[in-house]
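In response to reviewer comment 3 from the previous cycle, which asked for concrete evidence that the modeling workflow produces usable outputs, we include below a single protein chain processed end to end. The sequence was submitted unchanged, and the resulting structure tokens are shown without manual editing.
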Amino acid sequence: MYQQPEQSPWGKVQHCETLCPGVFLVSTPSHGGTMFSKDMAAVLSPAARKCGFRHGGFLCFEEDSQEDVAFRELLDKKLWAVPDRIKDKAAFEENINKSIREYNPDYWRIRQAGLEKAPARQTVSVHSTER
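The workflow returned the following structure tokens.
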């Protein structure tokens, strides 16, 4: 259904791993990142989409400073899981979070604010349906 990219903003794709349908972890001889098809980019939060950039019909997240935003979104939405080859999954996720706090603090603040508000919204909707 989704075609793997042959070109990336970082050059010709040398290796491509599908993280979930329409989301590709790509590497080139010199660099890489994560590329979302148009359909899959739509499932990302607006704050996450702002961290990426468009290239050839994909929303791209550069591996050094943006990719962890993509990983965090995929994990939060349960579209991807930390690979089995990673032994300390909690440490892997904390490294993602640390990178986001350092390189994408605006995204982190918006994400955290949304997490804090989510239970309150659920409580409000439960009470409103009981009335």
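The longest helix spans residues 105-130. We consider this sufficient to address the reviewer's concern, and the full set will be provided in the supplementary archive.
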